[in-house]
Amino acid sequence: MKKTDLILNLSDHSRLSKVDAKASVEVILEALTKGIVSGEGVEIRGFGGFYKKYRKARLGINPKTSERTQVKEKFVPFFKPGKSLRKSVNKD
Amino acid sequence: MSVTKKDIADLLVDRIGVTHNQALSITNDFFDEIKKSLAQGESVKLSSFGNFIVREKSARPGRNPKTGEQVMISARKVVTFKAGPKLKKATQIGV
Predict the structure, then answer these.
(1) What's the complex ipTM?
(2) Residue B46 to residue A3, Cβ atoms within 8 A
(3) Rounded Cα gap, residues B63 and A26, in angstroms
(4) B7-18 burial string, b = 16+ CB within 10 Å, else e?
(5) What confidence tens digit (pLDDT) does each residue in A20-75 have?
(6) Chain A neighbours among B 63-82 (CB < 8 Å)?
(7) What is the pTM for the complete model shown?
(8) Is A30 helix (H, G, I), strand (E, B) or coil?
(9) Interface probe with B: pick from A15, A71, A85, most Cβ of B within 10 Å
(10) Do A85 and B50 touch (CB under 8 A)?
(11) Which of A24, A42, A69, A71 is most buried (most C-beta within 10 Å)?
């Protein structure tokens, strides 16, 4: 499923114009992004949580040239699936 | 305080001009639609955000960390999230 499919489904389901459904999806994604970036995290009951995780600086190797390079410390986005999502994926 | 469905709904009321009830239903539908697709084993790709992918895990031996007992962990499906370049980049801000 792609973003456009999601927008069409939402528009059908919530009796929303396609324009409003598209705008809603963008607003929701922006809210999720903000929650992750700010470090607050996002918690959606039954679906899961979005957080950012710290990664230490490390020595990396360029797999192409096998050169050693310093990789800087960074944060990476992380999703932890909720109980209900884990269950629904496994129900068969 | 982490962002919740209520925060998202409030933002929708502000920005799209829908009623509070509509905003809540849109928010619920958004996550339900993603869940439904994943439940059918179909990945969800949201450009500018990231991809939710269903992965098959084969059975493997594990251990109960409390008792040290060996048990078999059954084959299962798990949802993984792979952040897109835009989200990854945004997460770097403030390092």
Answers:
(1) 0.89
(2) yes
(3) 43
(4) bbbbbbeeebeb
(5) 999 999 999 999 999 999 999 999 999 999 999 999 999 999 999 999 999 999 99
(6) 76-81
(7) 0.89
(8) helix
(9) A85
(10) no
(11) A24
